[in-house]
Design goal:
By secondary structure, the chain is mostly helical. It has 2 helices and no strands. It is 84% helix and 0% strand. The relative contact order is 0.19. It comes from Pseudomonas syringae pv. aceris.
Length: 32
Amino acid sequence: WRASAERRAAVIEQPGPFKVTVSMRYDYFVLQ
C-alpha cells in the first residue's frame, strides 16, 4: 500500500494518462 502511495505521488508530480492508468490497474490488483 505504501509503495502504491509513492507511485501516486510520482504520477501527480508527472501527470500522464498512461501512468495514471498503470497506477490505477496496479492498485486494483493489489486491492484484490
